[in-house]
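Re: export button greyed out
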Amino acid sequence: MLKKILLPTILLLLAYGFWISSDFKTIAAGISLFLFGMLSLEEGFQAFTGGTLERLLRRTTSSTGKSLLFGICSTTLMQSSSLVSVITISFLSAGLITLTAGIGIIFGANLGTTTGAWLIAGFGLKVNIAAYAMPMLVFGVILVFQSSRSLKGIGYILAGLGFLFLGIHYMKEGFESYKDTINLAEYAVAGYPGVLLFTTLGIFATVVMQSSHATLVLTITALAAGQITYENALALAIGANVGTTITAILGAMSANEAGKRLAAAHLVFNLVTGAIAIIFIYQLVALVNGMSALVGIADDDYTLKLAVFHSVFNVIGIVVMLPLINQLVNALEKYIPEKRPEVDQPKYLSDSSAAFPGTAVEAVRLETLRVYEAALRIIIDGLGMKAADVLSSNNLEQVLGTQNRIHQFDIDAMYERHIKGIYSAIVVFISDTTFSRREEQSADLRWLRDANINLVEAVKDTAQLQENLIFYTGSENPEMRAAYNRLRTQVGLIIRDLEEMRASTAGVIDVLSLDALKLLVEEDQSRINQTLTELIGKRAISPSMGSSLINDSVFAHDICMSLISAAQNLFVTGEQHLTQAAHDVTLDKSDLSKIGTQASAESLNR
Amino acid sequence: MKRKKLLKTLSRLLDMKGHKQREHRDELKVLLRKLKKKKVELEERVRLEQDERKRTRLDKELEIINAQRIKGLKTLEELMQV
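Workaround output, generated via the alternate export path:
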């Protein structure tokens, strides 16, 4: 109900404002241009995600110090702590960075955003920036129409900067002319009531505009025009700092628990910093005065002093909160716990991880790894093996030979519980992601989808194999027991090899060497067929036993092949830029059979 | 002549499809170099390996790498012709 009334009310109020004051119209147009500029800037930087930004983020968040520095630098560059916090939430949701690193970035972004105040106070108000805005807009718009993604991105950035500058110019102009008609400074409230009132106003303005930057620019321009007092401007800056968390909170609504924890950390940081600034506002003012005098800022240059104040209280926030980062992480993990559903659900697929192509691919990869792990557990249990035996260096065939019987394991139920939910979500996520993916990212998603199909096939084949396996491992016929144990061993050893490779940091060449495993599986298959023919010929097993064994050996072969194919798509942790080329040289069934025929011809010639 | 060359360079720069293909070709070249290096390493290991069973396994890997290189070279040839 409130939502329905709010928008028309705001529009009506604005229309009334425009009607009674042309200066108000100029200021509002300035704010609109400024916000539009920020949107354009965000659009421009998003063009560079899906590669450079992700690589940079991954490399620069290995420690809290580095994360902090990354937050400062990226926000200084992008001039939007909101964009940085939304990107960080999406990276955290996709599992690319840790919560501690995410918090570090958010702390840094809070300090980085203060550079905006410096730029506007030190440069924006003293130079006619509208003169720079026009060429930027022209070049920007021309580049926006180009087909190249990078040029388009640069175009959006240029146009964004142009709109930002133009917006500042109009706000400045609006407040300058306002001075002649009405003096807002008359409404200034002194003392703590004033601080609290203007802090609330700052929060409200930032929530409405969804940009602390816009509130700060508005504050600085109003202060420069003498429309508000210095003390009230400080309170507005504190309010803007608290209100800016709304973007992160909105961004986290569609994120998973990790994203929600980060948004909560952002809110905690900004509330604590705001509280410190309000409580010690007079001491901070004295400190800012002292520092300003030290660096040569004039006593009456309140705009620059406001920038100093903004930086000082954010630095204090970081100094206070940084040593408490681990306690904050623990508290957030305690109060925002991860939900454990009956049926396994995706952890990394969310609207925020779909926002950027690179994070979408990584989120699908991490979910596919979960499917892989669940599939391995089901296959090992379904074939009556123990993970400890499969993953150790024990002689697996010998270990399995000592088992007299295998217990029934409900593979279908385990599939429904541990795989189906995630698998379905992956399929939907891949189909639903509407962002403009680059060719290589679409290919990555396609390969990951294939890996999922392979894993599901491996589990289904295990269910097929299980029935006869249970029957014949309890059989009186030693040949049948041995034959089925060999099938289990074949699958177990492939899982062992794959897990060894997964534990090492696999490059493209290592993953390509998995083709050798495929060849071994093919050779095993022909050996098994050979043994089978001999067993039937010797009448050691009945024809019906033989046909069961032939069918089941095909299932075992298919399980191995599916697992290897899935691993080839999943395991590359480095050199990801070479995955397309790796797929070009990966051997398919016909290539492998050619090598197999060659090998058998050679062995015959020997 | 100079203008023609300039136009050709410009159109090459703006041709995104061509750029993608060049990138693909370069990646394949890098991978083929890596495979060649791995092949030389494996040949050396096969030469030094005393254990018959291990040598057979290494031989298999070598066969695979050779097949992968042949497949890669064929793809590269096709890409060069485009």
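The CA atoms of residues 42 and 61 of chain B lie 8 Å apart. The button fix ships in the next patch.
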